[in-house]
Every structure is written in structure tokens, then in C-alpha cells.
Amino acid sequence: MGNNTPVTEFILTGLTDDSQMQLILFGIFSAVYAITLMGNLSMIILIRMSPSLHTPMYFFLTGLSFLDICYSSCVTPKFLSSLLKENKIISYGGCFIQLYFYILLATTECYLLAVMAYDRYMAICNPLLYFITMSQRKCVQLIAVAYIAGIINASIHTMAATRLSFCGPNIIKSFYCEGPPLFALSCSDISLNYLLVFVFVGFNLLTTSLTVLTSYAYILVTILKLHSTATRKKAFSTCTSHLMVITIFYGCLSFMYAQPSSRSNYNLDQMASVFYVVVTPMLNPLIYSMRNQEIKCIISLFRKGKES
Fold first, then answer.
1. Mean pLDDT value across residues 212-221
2. The whole model's pTM is what?
């Protein structure tokens, strides 16, 4: 190992080597990224400009839109530029910076979705105490907890990764700097890194998913106890958008990290990564705008105002 040259840069394999397919993918994912930015920015502006939406639920939705912009921007611009280049090179430092922010933002979103589930529990199961419990200060504190969890998780995994030695192949089998494909290139012991992934990813998923499941279990029981069908429908409609977002997010996350370390099905894994990292941030504002009655009403009012 003493004769091997330390790695100073990495090469990303991307999704395909076909130059024509790369141009097609560039067009598709450029459109996806543009829709992601416009959709989430529009959601933030719409909520900030509408006093009727200045509630804890929409405060957290603003935070989710901001996270999705950052999350997508952490990976997509580099991914798009690599589609136009023959050599998909990322510097050693750039790779670890991308790894850090990817983990930070993904973990933060995981906890924010759990916080949003708790918010729906308080709104439906304890409506009289809702605005007292979910005060502005409490909402800010919950957002801060989500970011702190992301910073801690990202710092632990990135610091553990930087301690590894890279002295052999430098081709990362992915379109961005992800943990397991990066660990596979190391010429040092990676057992600690996989242990940290198992412990912290498992803890974060278990903690947040239990919060979501417990919250919605109570919500379901409360809704079933309601006598009015219209009230039931209204209570359930406030949860459907969030449930769809959670299902997509946790489904992709579980698929990516619940696989064997060998990752034998490379193409399937890459498809899951693209959907999780690039497509999901675009879907969230679309889901909320199509499924949420209050947002649909505000959008229709804006349209009528422009027409008049």
C-alpha cells in the first residue's frame, strides 16, 4: 500500500455512457430541476403572501419547500454538468462536501416530516390546545431540532469517511457522492463506517417512522370517532398530502438502505437514487398544491385576481 498514489479526485459513473442518452437525460432532468425550484419557491411565496396560511402546518410546509430546494441543489447541478462531460470528475474535497450536505439535508427532512406528523396529531386530536401547544416559538424549536439532528448525523458520517484511505480505484458507482459506493473504494477498514450507517440510519428511521406511525394511529382513531361524514372528510383531507409525501420519501429511503451491502442490482439502485434525490423534491409541492384544498383555493383566488 505504501507504493500506491493517494486519490485526489473521484470519477462518477453517472447513469449511462451513451452520449445521446446523456443529452436526453440532461433535457429531462434540467426540466425536473427547473420545476423543483419554481414549484418550491412558488409554495414559499404563496404561503408568505397569504395571511390565512400563516399557521403551524404551513410554517412547516415552508420549511419543507426550502429543504427540498437545498436538497435538490446539493446534487442535481453537478449531476447535470456531468451529463455534458466525458470525464465525470469531482474533486476529493468536493465529494466530501457533497456527502456532508446530502446527509445533513436528508436527515433534516426525515425529522421534519415526523414533526409535520406530530403537528397533524395536535391539530386533529387536541384542537383546543393546538395553537397554544404549537406556538411560533415551539415551531421554531422543532425546526431547529430537525436541523441539529441533520448536522450531528452528517458530521459523524463525514468525519468517519474522511479518516479512510483511498489509494486504489477512484470510480464511484453512482451519479453523486453517496456513502456505500464511496466506502467501497477505500483501501482501509470500513467496518466502522458500515456500523455507523447501521446504527444512525436505523435510529433515525426508527425514531421518525415511529413518530409518524403513532401520530397517524391516533389521528385515525380520532377521525373514526367523528359522527359527521363531512367533518371526517375534512380532517382526513388535511393528512392525505402529508401521507403521500411520507410514503414516497420513506419508501425510497428504505429501499436504498435496506438492501444487502453487495448492491447486486446496480440499475435498480440507481433508479431509486434518482427518484429519491432528484424527483421527490419536485413532487412534494405538486402533491400539496393538488391535494390541499386551502392551497387550491388560494391559487384560484390569485388566478381570478390576475384575470380581473
1. 91
2. 0.88
